[in-house]
Amino acid sequence: MESFIISRKSKFIDGAKKAIPITFGYIPMGIGYAAIAIKAGMTPLQTVSMSFLVYAGAGQIIAASMVLGGASVIAIVLTNFVVNLRYFVMSTCVLNKVEKSSLPLNILSAHLTVDESFAMFSLSEDSSIWIYLGIALTAWLSWCLGAGIGVVILDMLPVIVTNSFNISLYALFVAILIPAIKESKQIALLVAVTAVLNVVLSQFLGNWSLIVSTLLGAAAGMHIVDDGYLLSGDA
């Protein structure tokens, strides 16, 4: 029993070490999210609590940006639902890969699933749930730490610096999209089509344009993107 506990602990620590590179991106990104959230009128407690309870990265930044733009609650919820649908797939893939684990650990791992921790675990040869929790929990805490640092230091920074954090959303999406665009011209076309749709529809639908353009883009992707590319594991 003791050796079993030591094994779990060593795997968790190993996973935490693997996540260190993620923390270097998540802490400044968390500060960027806090800058937008505070500017949108959210309190420091609301800002940090959202990171602990929601933990959606781009989804949180989108939500804060929509609050700043005066969007309705239903629009914010539906937009995040559409944007974060990928986490259903990622969580399922994680649970299919891991060895035996309990229901509480499965629930925790699902809550902690984001793009970076999922990608890192997917590349890991070890399928232990403790490896994944080490990666995912470290990434989550670094994101929350970034939000906490943000609400503390933003008042101390010049306005030009705090305003510069607002580009974090665009930087995040660029970082996610560039590798796929470089691999596939079809993906590049799909991104362009969706972006144009969002710009055009925003003139008529306001904050709802992101939801509609995402759904239309996904529908177009069914015909534009080759199935072989998606099944190859490069997507």
Describe the structure.
Helix 4 packs antiparallel against helix 5 and helix 11 runs antiparallel to helix 12 (185-205). It contains 14 helices and no strands. It has helices spanning 2-18, 20-39, 44-53, 58-68, 73-83, 86-97, 103-111, 115-122, 129-153, 159-164, 168-183, 185-205, 209-224, 227-231. The radius of gyration is 19 Å and the shape is globular.
Helix content: over 70%
Spatial separation of the terminal alpha carbons: 41 Å
Give start-end ranges of low-pLDDT stretches.
229-234
Q: Kindly provide the radius of gyration, computed on alpha-carbon positions and rounded to a whole number of angstroms.
A: 19 Å
Beta fraction: under 5%
Name the overall outline.
Answer: globular
The tally of helices reads: 14
> What average pLDDT do the residues reach?
80
H/E series: HHHHHHHHHHHHHH
Report the biggest beta sheet as strand number plus sense, adding barrel if it closes: none
Broad structural category: mainly alpha
DSSP summary, beta strand count: 0
Please render the helix and strand layout as text.
Elements: H1 2-18, H2 20-39, H3 44-53, H4 58-68, H5 73-83, H6 86-97, H7 103-111, H8 115-122, H9 129-153, H10 159-164, H11 168-183, H12 185-205, H13 209-224, H14 227-231
Helix pairs in contact: 1-9, 2-3, 2-4, 2-9, 3-9, 4-5, 5-13, 6-8, 8-9, 11-12, 12-13
